[in-house]
Specification:
Elements lengths: L9 E2 L3 E4 L6 H7 L3 H6 L8 H17 L4 E6 L5 E11 L2 E8 L8 H16 L4 E7 L3 H9 L3 E12 L2 E11 L8
Length: 184
């Protein structure tokens, strides 16, 4: 999966997932001011517009070119940015999903809908055999979402996840290709 991927747009009933674009800089910058996004992800803190530019130009554009696609997630009804999704290449047939949701999107099932779409795409269109999921121990909303998306929690990796120079225990889960119907 580390070969270049032609960027694709995914659609669900309520969402459009598309590669990040320069027009998204203000929305991404605003979203990443959220203390919960900063608490549970590796986004820089404080988060500046330059960080959003890095996200769009490097994580976004170069990610697709290196086989690690990223999407900005928009609600169809409003056009509002409600989160991001990404699949980071982790070896032959394997990727790790990552996501964050804006405060206004939480609790509405939008991130679950987006996660299911990304997993379906990765397992069917990209031919992945396994999608990993990790979250810092304590991030109960992410764990609940992963379980609802069909992931099996495999355990705790001690002192595994680095965030701003500190290491944290993380939960690890997976969704296998023959379990794709669990993410439906």
């Amino acid at each position: 999966m580390n070969e270049p991927i032609t960027p694709v747009t995914l659609e669900t009933d309520r969402l459009v997932l598309r590669p990040p674009a320069l027009d998204d800089l203000d929305a991404v910058t605003a979203a990443c001011q959220d203390p919960e996004i900063q608490r549970w992800t590796v986004v820089p803190t404080p988060y500046r517009r330059e960080d959003a530019e890095f996200f769009v130009n490097v994580v976004g554009t170069k990610g697709w070119a290196s086989g690690s696609p990223t999407w900005c997630v928009f609600e169809k009804a409003t056009g509002e940015l409600v989160g991001t999704q990404g699949l980071t290449h982790r070896g032959p047939g394997r990727a790790e999903i990552g996501y964050w949701a804006t405060a206004s999107a939480r609790g509405r099932g939008l991130t679950l809908e987006a996660t299911r779409a990304v997993c379906r795409w990765g397992l069917t269109e990209r031919g992945l055999r396994r999608i990993d999921w990790t979250a810092y121990v304590g991030n109960e909303p992410s764990k609940a979402l992963a379980l609802r998306a069909g992931f099996t929690i495999e355990g705790v990796l001690r002192s595994w996840g680095e965030q701003r120079g500190r290491f944290h225990d993380v939960w690890m889960g997976s969704l296998l290709a023959d379990e794709a119907d669990r993410s439906a």
